[in-house]
Specification:
about 130 residues; alpha+beta; Membrane-bound Lytic Murein Transglycosylase D, Chain A; 2 domains; 4 strands; about 35% helix; transmembrane; LysM_dom_sf; LysM domain-containing protein
């Protein structure tokens, strides 16, 4: 197996050996074909890793299509003891499908699940508000 990097020593005049001059040595770095391949491989590994990570993650943190909710587009209600999102959805929008209303409430409030606690304040989209 040969080395990937070799050096060439030259003296100031270019004719006498570097050891005979006794002065500072000038060293030029030459990369062999194998050395260039190894260097290119070492550089490409982090680039390929970063690219693969970006592709796998999908870039959702950088480019989200979810816009913020405009002010005044929801009504806030306080959850009472024994209430669920389903009962609130039926109360707020009796003519709408409760599944759609519950889904809209979950998305608007960014809730991890459909469970709520008594005293919790949640936002109801105005389209389902009982004030309409």
């Amino acid at each position: 197996m040969s080395t990937a990097i070799s050096t060439v020593q030259d003296d100031a005049a270019g004719t006498t050996p570097a050891a005979a001059v006794g002065g500072a040595r000038k060293t030029r770095l030459r990369l062999t074909r194998r050395g260039r391949r190894v260097l290119a491989g070492l550089v490409s590994v982090p680039v390929a890793t970063a690219l693969a990570f970006a592709i796998i993650s999908g870039g959702t943190a950088l480019a989200s299509r979810d816009d913020g909710v405009p002010t005044g587009s929801f009504e806030t209600v306080t959850v009472m003891a024994g209430e669920s999102l389903w009962s609130i959805a039926e109360e707020m929008a009796p003519t709408e499908d409760p599944r759609d209303v519950v889904d809209a409430i979950i998305r608007l409030n960014q809730l991890p699940s459909a469970s709520v606690a008594a005293g919790q304040r949640i936002a109801i989209p105005l389209q389902y508000s009982s004030a309409d």
